[in-house]
């Protein structure tokens, strides 16, 4: 059966569409958005508590969820112990040799010098006998070798004593300071990771999403919570290429939210220089085949804070 439309009804439809066709005011479509903050997982640990729910408003510093602490706490304790060991090692280097070590080195030097004198005296006695061939020449050579060996031992003991009396070299102290700094930095990094296992809101926000559930173990870097921040949403729209040259940061705009007839005042706060293809929900007739430019419009009306994100908007530019 063919359906016919009464002439009067057809005329009414045409009259209703003509104003929209004649509307040459520059406009763009988009949605209401908030700035988003993603809080990634600092460690692959199990979620042991979720303190908020999606859609809840939170204050800065408020706990959102908590991860299991045992393994990271143990690693932090190990890092602290290593830093303490390096600190004690540096203090030992700065203090230098103990007085007992110096005294021991002096006693060893005295003993070595005594052995040298004894060897030299023996050599002095056997050398004439060797010239008279009263003893074997090999015995004389052994005596001279004993003198050289005892003298070398005495010199080594003297140098060891001088090293102890000079104290620790400044290069060794510098190495100890560097090792301590590295271990303290490692301990501080572990402490930061431990603190992050209690995920808190960095600023006042609205909890948009908590992707993981109680007991899940999110991989490192995966989002644990997504927050919406800002006192009020802004309009994120796609400016057609045909009017891009006429839209600048700071320009006034009229924002129509969710099909409402009344507009809200706004100001262009950002418009990108790189174009993108128009998304499916921002098509306006022939603009479907054209490029568009992402722009953000700040809503300046007092009731903007009560608007939920995600609502479709239409923005008109110009006076």
UniProtKB/TrEMBL annotation:
The leader peptide range reads 1-22
Where does this polypeptide localize? Cell envelope
Q: Which residues form a coiled coil?
A: none
Specify the domain of life of the species encoding this protein: Bacteria
> Could you confirm whether the keyword Signal appears in this record?
yes
Q: Mind listing the UniProt keywords for this protein, alphabetically? A: Coiled coil, Signal
Q: Does the keyword Cytoplasm apply?
A: no
All copies of domain YbhG-like alpha-helical hairpin, residue ranges:
80-195
- Name where it mostly resides: other
- InterPro entries from the entry? HH_YbhG-like (IPR059052), UPF0194_transport (IPR050465)
Gene3D superfamilies per UniProt: 2.40.50.100
**Name of this chain's protein:** Membrane protein
